[in-house]
Every structure is written in structure tokens, then in C-alpha cells.
Amino acid sequence: MKRTTRILLTGFEPFDGESSNPSWEAVRAAAAEPPAGLEITAVELPCVYGRSRTVLREAVAAHDPDIVLCVGQAGGRPDLTVERVAVNIDDARIPDVSGAQPIDEPIVPGGPAAYFAALPVKACVAAVREAGVPASVSNTAGTFVCNHVFYDLMHLIATERPALRGGFVHVPYAPGQVAGRSLPSLAVSAVAEGLRVIAATAARTNTDIKAVGGATH
């Protein structure tokens, strides 16, 4: 009998004055109704440089997942964006929840400049689109706490847990966050379904598909 695939999903606490964060709401919803064959654990990360990495590593050690999928809010993006690359830099445009605002600081001093996600990024995007949820490949995870966590996850995989697979997904605002503003949003239920599809696709797919996913700028 095939063993259940263990998935660790992480979302973030609210930040930048928001009262909620759709990444955590969607992660929690996805974990409540996992796809067949998957065991999903949801963990909320603080939107704080340094502390977020510690909580993530503690969760990995506690749950020993096969796949880690970290999720964060990218206000202004219209769809689920599966991140391709994490870069070794903290460069905060706004302070984190603790008030810290690092500028041009390496996440891991002496570490590689960047890591690619250890997920079938394009296959995940294609599967989410097929499920009726908008999605695309992203080639930048920013330089805020999302990229901070993404890079540290990939560094952990590269240096300590080579059997682990993982990556990062950014999600749009929830509709309630953009009331009265001309900004794109996506229902948390749709985001949660997209995350379930990504988790299931990652669990069964080791080799990515070859498809257009690049950008001209």
C-alpha cells in the first residue's frame, strides 16, 4: 500500500496594518479538506525576519514532511503565482511586524546567490489552471519576509534535508481586503483549491513539464 504523502503548508500572520492574511486563511482551509492520499499540516508563520525561519524549521523537524509549500500574500497580483527562484537578500520596503527593516542584508551570509524551487513549477501552474483557478509562474518572490522564508527553506533542503522537496506560492488579496479599491482579488476558497491542486501535483510529479512560463520584463 502506498504511503500517504506528508505535506507541510505554511501561511503568514497579517502584516502592514491588515487584519487578516489570505495566505493563512487559504492554507488552513486547504489542510481541513486535503486531497486523497495527502496528509496536510498547516502552520502559521510570523511575518518577522529571522523568527519566521525558526518557526519553519521547527515545523519541519516536528512533522518530517515530504513536501513543504510555503504561501504568502502578494497584494496586487491577480492570480496564484508559483515561485521559481529565491534570492539571498533581505531588502525591506516596509518594516516587518516587529518593526525590523533590513536593507541589503544576506539571508545566509556566504550562501548561494539564489536557489530554484524544488517543485515542478510549470506542472503545478498548468494543473491549477486546468482546475479553473488563475495561476502563473513567477520569477521573483520579492525581497520581503516571503523570499526570506523561501530562500531559507531551499537552503535547508540543499544543506540538511536533500530528500525534502519544497517551494513557495504567492496569492492575491482576498475580496474583503480590497473593498473600495481597484485592486485584483481572489476568493479564499479558490486559493485553497489551488493550493490543494499544487500539493497533489507536487506529490505525484517529479519531472516538470516544458511550457511557456517566462516573462519579457
From TrEMBL:
Record Pfam families: Peptidase_C15
Keywords carried by this UniProt record: Cytoplasm, Hydrolase, Protease, Thiol protease
Q: What is its main location?
A: cytoplasm
**Which residues constitute the catalytic centre?**
E83, C146, H170
Describe the reaction catalysed, as an equation.
Answer: Release of an N-terminal pyroglutamyl group from a polypeptide, the second amino acid generally not being Pro
Location of this chain's protein in the cell? Cytoplasm
Q: Which SUPFAM superfamilies does this UniProt record tie to the protein? A: Pyrrolidone carboxyl peptidase (pyroglutamate aminopeptidase)
> What EC number(s) would the UniProt record show?
3.4.19.3
Q: Give GO terms: molecular function aspect only.
A: pyroglutamyl-peptidase activity
The answer on whether this UniProt entry bears the keyword Cell wall biogenesis/degradation reads: no
Functionally, this protein is described as follows: Removes 5-oxoproline from various penultimate amino acid residues except L-proline.
Q: HAMAP family per the record?
A: Pyrrolid_peptidase
Family assignment from sequence similarity: Belongs to the peptidase C15 family.
Q: How does it assemble?
A: Homotetramer.
Q: What is the official name of this protein in its record? A: Pyrrolidone-carboxylate peptidase
Organism, per UniProt?
Streptomyces chrestomyceticus
* Gene this protein is translated from: pcp
